Amino acid sequence: MPVIDKKIIEVGEPQRGDVMVFRYPSDPNVNYIKRVVGLPGDTVRYTADKHLFVNGESIAEQLVGSEPGTLGSAELYKEKLGVAEHLIRKEMSRYRATPDHTWTVPAGHYFMMGDNRDNSNDSRYWDDPSIPKDLLGMVPDKNIVGKAFAVWMSWPEPKLSHLPNFSRVGLIK
After folding, report:
1. pLDDT (tens digit, 9 = 90+) per residue, 47-82?
2. Which of 36, 49, 80 is nearest to 62 (CA)?
3. Which residues of the chain register pLDDT less than 50?
4. Domain ranges of the chain
5. What percent of the chain has pLDDT over 90?
6. Among 146, 149, 142, which residue's Cα sits nearest to residue 84?
7. Model's pTM, two decimal places?
């Protein structure tokens, strides 16, 4: 129960591909929501050409097409992580990530990525001098709040000039 910060029913460990709510490691008062990419013991690699590898295996993705209204600058892909098949978004001219970086997920931690791959504050970018270098970007198990299952309200871009709306209400895949 995220509202009261108590575990009521044990539902198991996060699985690769699950969308999880968790407390941001640098500020546990802030809840984040991202997809689990790396499990304890995994090696995660994100290449300069925007491909994801887990334990040396390329994660399958299939081009769906250009995102409507982006004139080809953003493409949508169908990706399969574990049993979860979902859409990811890549901005083809944006390179925010350190090219060809690799992370090893320590025991009791998870590596999280957003489905909007080039515009997501996720495990690839977190930097906090108070966190040991080998744990940077990792979400400790104790920070996991629960599995997300639905979108209720969303906030269209640019956020400061729009009000939240209910245009994306639905279950999370």
Report:
1. 988 899 999 999 999 999 988 777 768 899 999 998
2. 80
3. none
4. 19-171
5. 39
6. 149
7. 0.81
Pick from 169, 144, 157: nearest CA to 19: 144
9 CB-side CA count, 13 A: 2
Provide the strand spans (E) within 83-169: 84-91, 101-104, 109-113, 138-140, 144-147, 150-151
- Would you mind telling me the total number of residues written for the chain in this entry? 173
Q: 19-171: which CATH number, 3.20.20.150, 1.10.10.10, 3.30.300.30, 2.10.109.10? A: 2.10.109.10
Pull the structure tokens for residue 111: 């590596």
Dihedral sign from CA coordinates of 146, 150, 153, 157: positive
pLDDT digits (tens, 9 = 90+) for 15-25: 999 999 999 88
